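Exercise 7b. Backbone tokens:
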């Protein structure tokens, strides 16, 4: 068991004991007055977490931020508070604050896969004003994969940013690995085909193009429950709240892969828009690949 796990277990046990003591009146046969200020602080912390959750689910993200910050003033290392604070900042467009929250999270627990993914998403977002850095994003997605190798989301996103960074052979390997774990991933099939097309292997490009189209035609899951890699959005009357409906973030090439022309279109027609976007984003990759 890691040091971080030990400390979290100790904090959790202490919190539970304090709450139980407060609920029971905290009698002490030794005659020493109980530390009611400590109990009050623990209760205050959980009140703030509960209020933050309520604000977040009600769509009041600024209210949630206020409560998460107040809770973190009591327990600066609480992982859920740091993660949800960061996701609220992401939704509010406060990327610098989100990055700081997620960096704090992985300092508290370097084994936090969700923290590594969240930082990867921030650096894989090519929006104006975003700290776009595919090399740095790749390092976070790769670390998330090391921590949890069964999740295919980081594998797909790792392939995307490696492709933008010009590391085509590595990227193709990750797309093909994603497909081995999740054959219904439209994007993995589409982008693997694109990379075969770009290296001049027309037969492989057509094969992957067909796989992408077949994955896109896959039947909707039972009762509308979507599996990882499905493209079809669930209808909802509300905007998804943090952590977002897609914690892996909006993929870079998802929209283009969803718009693949049907067969018998030539791969040139299918992949030219992806090539144009790849080239445009490649020009934005910072010379300093560390980005720190």
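Sequence design result:
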């Amino acid at each position: 068991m890691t040091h971080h796990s030990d400390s979290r277990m100790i904090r959790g046990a202490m919190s539970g004991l304090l709450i139980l003591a407060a609920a029971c009146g905290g009698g002490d046969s030794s005659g020493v007055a109980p530390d009611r200020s400590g109990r009050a602080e623990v209760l205050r912390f959980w009140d703030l977490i509960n209020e933050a959750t309520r604000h977040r689910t009600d769509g009041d993200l600024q209210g949630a931020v206020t409560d998460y910050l107040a809770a973190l003033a009591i327990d600066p290392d609480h992982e859920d508070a740091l993660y949800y604070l960061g996701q609220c900042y992401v939704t509010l467009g406060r990327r610098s604050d989100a990055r700081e929250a997620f960096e704090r999270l992985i300092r508290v627990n370097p084994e936090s896969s969700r923290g590594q993914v969240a930082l990867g998403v921030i650096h894989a977002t090519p929006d104006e004003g975003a700290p776009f850095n595919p090399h740095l994003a790749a390092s976070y997605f790769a670390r998330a994969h090391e921590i949890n190798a069964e999740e295919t989301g980081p594998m797909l996103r790792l392939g995307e940013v490696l492709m933008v960074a010009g590391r085509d052979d590595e990227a193709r390997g990750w797309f093909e690995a994603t497909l081995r774990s999740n054959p219904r991933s439209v994007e993995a099939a589409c982008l693997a085909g694109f990379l075969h097309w770009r290296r001049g292997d027309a037969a492989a490009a057509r094969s992957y193009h067909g796989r992408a189209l077949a994955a896109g035609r896959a039947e909707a899951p039972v009762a509308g429950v979507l599996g990882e890699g499905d493209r079809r959005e669930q209808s909802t009357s509300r905007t998804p709240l943090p952590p977002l409906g897609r914690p892996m973030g909006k993929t870079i090439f998802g929209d283009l892969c969803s718009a693949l022309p049907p067969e018998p279109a030539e791969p040139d027609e299918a992949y030219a828009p992806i090539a144009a976007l790849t080239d445009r984003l490649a020009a934005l990759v910072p010379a300093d690949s560390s980005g720190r």
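Instructor comment: Residues 149-219+245-286 form a domain with the Serine Threonine Protein Phosphatase 5, Tetratricopeptide repeat fold (CATH 1.25.40.10). Residues 44 and 143 are 35 Å apart (CA to CA).
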